[in-house]
Amino acid sequence: MKALVFFLMSTLSLAAMAYDGTVNITGSIYASSCDVDSNSQTKNIRIGDFAANSFSSVGDVQGNALLSITLNNCTAEIAGGAITFSGDADTDNTTLLALSDTSGGGNMASGVGVEVLDKDGGQIPLNSQSKPFALSEGDNTLTFYLRYMATKIPVTAGNASSVMYFDLSYQ
């Protein structure tokens, strides 16, 4: 009987062994936000078709395609915001978005990246927050421009597509 009690006690003590752990929880509670209009959640923007030899030196640019993002139902508590455009950076100029084979067809252009500009024509470096902009109560349309910029010479012809994401922060 003593052996049975000893066996049961040793089994129970093994089950009582445990490790302590820590769970760190982060987040925020915000008063309100804006809704990104459904037509702005996924956009297809065509910058244009340009000859490879139209880029004669690093820094040459072509195109000026409008990118508008509409925010709906912004509340009065939101005075402004900032936007961060993210994606794969060009290896020769990390402020630009790299080209990517979005169609899977290969035959990619090289020597160019996609530059993002604010409404005043100032560059918004990729993966960096824009300058703050004002938002008013109700609906707002944010205006940006996209263009190709030469990152190395020679630029080679091919598909010049890419994928970019955006994140809004409110102030």
Automatic annotation (TrEMBL):
Organism expressing this protein natively: Kluyvera ascorbata
Organism domain of life: Bacteria
Keywords: Signal
GO cellular component: pilus
Protein's UniProt name: Fimbrial protein
GO BP term, pick one: cell adhesion involved in single-species biofilm formation
Entry annotated with the keyword Signal: yes
Annotated signal sequence range: 1-18
Matches recorded under Gene3D superfamilies: Fimbrial-type adhesion domain
Keyword Signal: yes
UniProt xrefs under InterPro entries: Adhesion_dom_fimbrial, Adhesion_dom_fimbrial_sf, Adhesion_dom_sf, Bact_Fimbrial_Adh_Pro
Stretches assigned to the Fimbrial-type adhesion domain: 24-171
